[in-house]
């Protein structure tokens, strides 16, 4: 005889987005932070839970955004491609098992790559993703070292990237992205920030391999 288990009652969407107080948008006073959320609402139709959680100290969030958003390529800078930046962020977030960042960056990588499942698979284990280029695989490998074993980084790791076309400025960007995403992961984990629901499902019409 087969038994069934009833689904849990109530909504599955988390009732809170931080272990600490989260201010309402109309409470915010920092013009840059208010503008950031206004732009998110206009372009994405949402405000991201992680940034909302950090808006409790809004001036700190403003300074953080001034560094974080450019290194993730939000200013359209050259050098590393948007896909390469998201590969690094996705690999590190997967390594740290940060629910928000893992889901967010896997979702963004899938959009950049035009393949939703690609982002999800890179987040789980980039070494098993055959579609990664040799350069992307090297970026992921260095990101893991920066995050997990920085003492084990050797000159040969940088030589490998130079041989694949990266200059020293770009290698420093790889390190910075990996290290800083690791820090954002730890903030998200400490505050128990859940992913936005929009980041957790397969987008309508998305390619899934």
Automatic annotation (TrEMBL):
Under Gene3D superfamilies, the record lists: AhpD-like
The entry's keywords: Oxidoreductase, Peroxidase
Any one GO molecular function term: peroxiredoxin activity
Species of the source? Mycolicibacterium phlei DSM 43239 = CCUG 21000
Q: Which InterPro entries match?
A: AhpD-like (IPR029032), CMD-like (IPR003779), Uncharacterised_peroxidase-rel (IPR010195)
Locate the Carboxymuconolactone decarboxylase-like domain: which residues? 73-108
The positions making up the signal sequence are none
Source domain of life is Bacteria
In its UniProt entry, what is this protein called? Peroxidase
NCBIfam families attached here?
peroxid_rel (TIGR01926)
Q: What is the lineage of its organism?
A: Bacteria, Bacillati, Actinomycetota, Actinomycetes, Mycobacteriales
Q: Which Pfam families match?
A: CMD
């Amino acid at each position: 005889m087969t038994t069934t288990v009833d689904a849990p009652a109530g909504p599955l969407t988390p009732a809170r987005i931080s272990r600490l107080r989260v201010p309402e948008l109309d409470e915010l006073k920092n013009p840059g932070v208010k503008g950031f959320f206004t732009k998110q609402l206009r372009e994405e139709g949402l405000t991201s839970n992680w940034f909302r959680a950090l808006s409790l100290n809004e001036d700190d969030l403003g300074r953080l955004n001034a560094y974080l958003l450019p290194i993730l390529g939000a200013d359209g800078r050259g050098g590393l491609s948007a896909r390469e930046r998201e590969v690094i962020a996705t690999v590190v977030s997967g390594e740290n098992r940060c629910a928000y960042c893992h889901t967010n960056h896997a979702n963004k990588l899938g959009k950049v790559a035009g393949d939703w499942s690609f982002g999800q698979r890179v987040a789980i284990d980039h070494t098993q993703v055959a579609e990664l280029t040799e350069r992307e695989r090297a970026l992921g490998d260095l990101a893991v070292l920066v995050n997990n074993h920085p003492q084990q980084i050797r000159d040969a790791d940088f030589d490998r990237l130079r041989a694949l076309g990266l200059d020293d400025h770009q290698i420093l960007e790889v390190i910075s992205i990996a290290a800083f995403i690791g820090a954002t992961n730890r903030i998200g984990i400490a505050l128990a920030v859940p992913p936005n629901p929009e980041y957790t499902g397969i987008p309508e019409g998305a390619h899934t391999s």
